[in-house]
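Q: Here's a chain of 663 amino acids. Please give me its 3D structure as tokens.
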Amino acid sequence: MAARVVFAFCLLQGQTLTAQTPQPLDLAALSLEQLMTIETTAGKKIQALGDVPAAVFVISGEEIRRGGYRSLPEALRLAPGVQVAQINANQWAISIRGFNAPYSNKLLVLLDGRVVYTPAFGGVMWDSQDLLIEDVERIEVIRGPGGTLWGENAVNGVINVITKSAAQTTGAFAEAGVESVDGGFVGTRYGGAIGDDGGYRIYAKYFQRGYEPGALTGREEWDQARGGFRADWGASSDDTFSIQGSGYSGSSTLNGRDVSLVAPFLRLVPHANEVDGGNVQAQWVRRLAGGADTQLRADLERNSRSSMYFAERRTTATLDFQHHPRPYRRNDLVWGAAYTTSADRMNGSFRLMFSPEEETLRVASGFIQDEIALVPRRLRLVAGTKILHNTYTGWEQQPNGRVLWTPGEDRSLWFAVSRAVRLPTRVEESVRLNIAAQPIPVPPGVALVRIEGTQGIGAERATAVELGYRMQVTAPWFVDMAVYRNAYSRLSMSALQGAPFLEVNPGPPHLVQQVSYSATGSGRSEGAEIFTRWQAAGAWRLSGNYSWFRMRVSPLNMLNGNLNPGLNPSHQARAQASFDFPHRVQWDLGLSHTSRLQATGVPAYTKLETRLAWRPRGPLEVELAAQNLLDDSHVEWLPVGGGALYENVEIPRSIVLRVSWRR
């Protein structure tokens, strides 16, 4: 077997130091044989990509840099099966294998193992998930359920962003750039050694971006400052330690959709949004004899955000333990337990309010999974389950079974059946959301449509069947394919409840038509994904992917945006080319296509991206990156139903000039 590509990171999330300083992962520079042996933590242990019985895609930090991307949502466009749509200056709708929405609640996202899924709305607040892009080692994208290992809400996929160890970021780095969308950014980082077997880094960054919306409303702007640190110890011992943290503060001016009981009943209002927060994470790993290991990780995060609709303060703490004992030659066992508490305070408004205002979600869980070599180096069986207890629904179980057949060192075939659950959110349990008001011809003359939360709604459930195949077709050609079918039950739907009733406070008097959540929905989805890479020569590489998707939900309810099949493109395709020229010149080119969104009429669009970089001398690099070159602007998302809080904008063409220096 080819020599495996080894990274310096600890077994689950993040990295620890090794005796030698590891080099950044550059997938584009790897041979096709090495692509099969890329190591990943998708199975919560270090495994070669060819040994993982799941649809896993790795985006390296080098690929992000060469794509000219400045944010995590933009970088996720590189992965097959991931649906990314930009809504406005700082909001995205991102999902895997369907159910896309501004808060895609069936996708679990982690930063170095720290969960950033919000239990308030479900999904991810992408405007506050940022870091110095230069510090990203890789992004592991697991398409399909991951509940057994990763926990609740990993229904359709898991995204784990893994940053570089302190040993990989020694020395000084600085960058500055300007964007054609009336924006700019600066960033800096410095790293050094701590004793003989430790290292550290500190960083800071700031950016500002402005968009002109597509309506006669105020300009949208977004700025944010962020800083952080990381330290690692124990490169030469059996015990390794890591601690890292970050803090941020930012603001944005967006055009919000406000509901009023007097005309105009729905209007766009420019208003300010403020976000700030911080987190700290500590991790200990002990390496044991025979390749076994034990890990303990603790996270603490506090964040807040305020807008014209609500103000949220949240404190989340997690303690996570894992043991990888390797008891027998043919068994590769991993088990663990975790406890999370997330306490919030939600202050609302006429548009959006919560009752009670304060609530604490607690989740305790344990998992076990065993990989059994039925035929050494040829046939393996993976089986496991996670059992959890939570505040909303009590006990839940998430089992999975997988089979991996490797007829040769250059190919593998896998099959999986798994189950995952999504826990209810604060919105579904305790929200009061006024979504629309309109005049009526009978007294009192005004009617209001309101969504009310339903306590005890229960967890959504999904069962997935997957089949995948990856192989090195010829020396320069690598192919990875997956097909799947998912069945969903107890989907959270909203439906009319009873006759309208009169409400006089707040005034003026108005009729209220109540809409409540109920776990009455079901659905099915199916799709196929293919990724291929061609390493034509040492100086240039080609890659491409294609995804096909189809979904059916019953009953179809226009008030539930994330349950509308027409908000997911049926076809997505991407082609990427990278060239290395003499005199330290790089050129990258990307072409992508997204089909029409049937529910809202967002037309199909094709995007052309390019980056040209030159290192004239030593530590200096100058690059010019451009996105959306085929049109001046285009729409990627429009809301469905009446609950949308913010206006959508057309995404403009963007040209970025960046200068970086490293020593």
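Q: Can you summarize the key feature?
A: DSSP finds five helices and 37 strands in the chain.
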